[in-house]
Amino acid sequence: MIVGNFIYLxxxxxxxxxxxxxxxxxxxxxxxxxxLDELVRRLDALNVKIFSTGGTFDFISSLGIKAExxxxxxxxxxxxxxxxxxxxxxVFGGILARRxxxxxxxxxxxxxxxxxxxxxxxxxxFEKTAADAQAKEEDIIEKIDIxxxxxxxAAAKNFNDVLIVPSVDYYGELLDIxxxxxxxxxxxxxxxxxxxxxxxxxxxxTAIFNHFNxxxxxxxxxxxxxxxxxxxxxxxxxxxxxFFYGNIDSxxxxxxxxxxxxxxxxDIDAAFSLINDFEETTFAIIKHNNACxxxxxxxxxxxxxxxxxxxPVSAFGGVLVTNRPIDKATAEAMNSLFMEICIAPDYSxxxxxxxxxxxxxxxxKQKHNGISSLQFRSALKGVLVQDKDTVxxxxxxxxxxxxxxxxxxxxxxxxFANKLVKHTKSNAIVLAKDKQLCASxxxxxxxxxxxxxxxxxxxxxxxxxxxxxMASDAFFPFPDCVxxxxxxxxxxxxxxxxxxKDNLTIDYCEQHNMAMAITGFRHFKH
Length: 526
Description:
Elements lengths: L1 H11 L3 H4 L1 E2 L2 E5 L6 H10 L3 E4 L1 H9 L5 E2 H5 L14 H8 L5 H9 L7 E4 L4 H6 L5 H6 L4 H11 L5 E3 L5 H11 L2 E2 L1 H26 L7 H5 L3 E3 L12 E3 L6 E5 L5 H14 L6 E6 L2 E7 L3 H11 L7 E5 L5 H7 L4 E6 L4 H7 L6 E5 L7 E6 L2 E6 L20 H15 L6 E5 L2 E6 L5 H14 L8 E4 L7 H8 L4 E4 L6 H10 L3 E4 L8
Parallel strand pairs: 2-3, 2-5, 3-4, 5-6, 13-14, 14-15, 20-21, 21-22
Antiparallel strand pairs: 1-7, 8-9, 10-15, 11-12, 11-13, 16-17, 18-19, 18-20
Helix pairs in contact: 3-11, 10-12, 15-16, 16-17, 19-20
């Protein structure tokens, strides 16, 4: 115990050489052999002892590389038609033994159990088999991996001593480690690979559960965890992106462009959420989850040109989304703009050819609105869950609470502006005119600041605010915002109401011949 405690103390005070561990032995048992040859050759060059099973052993031997059969280690052959190969104390003891504990080492010596420092394993293709309409039920059942999933969990659990590689997706990363560190790994690396492993096992078990559970009573979030997409990095390059959990392929088909990133997914979600609220021909440009340009027009190309005119500076590098198929004329107009992503329900052949001229441009064909009924956000080592804000105010629902009667045009602009403010970071103000975004004030700590930001931005792009409308995502605690708006020529306001001083704001509008509609629905987006 003294030795074990000493090693633990040294790890706590961060002695690097104790965190680094050399890979001296490896267990390799995989279904797919693609890319395995390069790894095995590198392990052999590093004098790593290799244990292997069945077809994997044959593959390694065909490369002229020495390996030891697992059945020679355990003293048992593969039995029950291959269902039992690695399930043995000499295998799992070698993986799970805690190197720093003297008691574990004594038992390893007593039962002649070799340490296993690296486990490379993948899983039977259950999802692929289950998705085959011609597959028999007994064939699907046989693709439920037992030994492989157990090896993954055991090695991941003992990441303090063992490196687990749970899929061919991580071969490249392992090879880099072997080449760079001459077969040594540090604790952070082993923990990262353990994270990969638990993601693989979680997704695998979820896929099996979904196959067996034929009811409609699975929680929506649980249903979405049937696939994980590995991301290059997170919000910034120094942050690990890790995974996106969910069935992303059901939302869109990627027709062209580079790999989708963490930030891309956030912008795509914002684009889907916004465009889903519009029925008429609409084009929107999203930047950092906020709309910087939106317009509704009868013609799609005109809608794009009007959306771009809202803020052509912010549009650079943005996400373009529409609810109509993109035609040649629209694609030609769009093509001169540098954009990260283009999203549409479809594309003409000519339009697609034009948009594909930029090799990194991500082109997505939307299959589904992509909107979950629930929203999730991490917080305080947990997850916040709420219903999605699906309320969309309609023109026929709007009634002015002042003496000014709302015109049909005002109602249309108010509905347009209110849809946008709903999808803008709070505190938010949106100014709009003729179903075109003039400007928005986003993410401000004061609603007055949000309004002033919107006014300044609208003026910078030469928008005439005479006759424009204003939408607020929450109530006005004082009449200051409507006063500022009135002084700029804005004559119509929509807000949820609910302030104890609503009457001050309403009275100001009444006295200055402004129209105001109160919806009763707040649209905070924090």
